[in-house]
Amino acid sequence: ARLAIVRTREVVAPAIVEVGAEHIHDMRCDRAGASLHVYRPRIHGMRVYDLARREVLVVSDDCGAWIPSDPALVLAREPGFGP
């Protein structure tokens, strides 16, 4: 599969951003800040994308939506996406 950016947008705090289950999203901030992510319904087997290694990680439900520093939180690795 191939990942492609289909949309970018700038959000000014405070804001609520809704993202559907069918979307992959990446968020960043150009200065200090904090964000609160609420997933409803709860996501089991969250998939996170490791762009450097070109693989998808399925992470533990105890993990957030990021690449965990503890390898025990990675439940599965799915190779094969790229530019």
Largest sheet features: 3 strands, antiparallel
Helical fraction equals under 10%
Strand content: 15-25%
Q: Mean pLDDT, as a whole number? A: 85
Structural class: mainly beta
H-E string: EEE
Biggest sheet, spatial arrangement of strands: 1-2-3
Detail the poorly predicted runs.
none
Silhouette: globular
Q: What is the count of helical runs?
A: 0
When the domains are counted, the total is 1
In terms of quaternary structure, the protein is single chain
Q: What is the number of strand segments?
A: 3
Distance between the termini: 9 Å
**C-alpha Rg (nearest Å):** 14 Å
Describe the structure.
A hairpin with a 4-residue loop joins strand 1 and strand 2. The chain has one domain (1-83). The chain is mainly beta and 83 residues long. It has a three-stranded antiparallel β-sheet with strand order 1-2-3, with no helix packed on it. 2% of the residues are buried. The protein has strands at residues 47-50, 55-59, 74-79. The chain contains no helices and three strands.
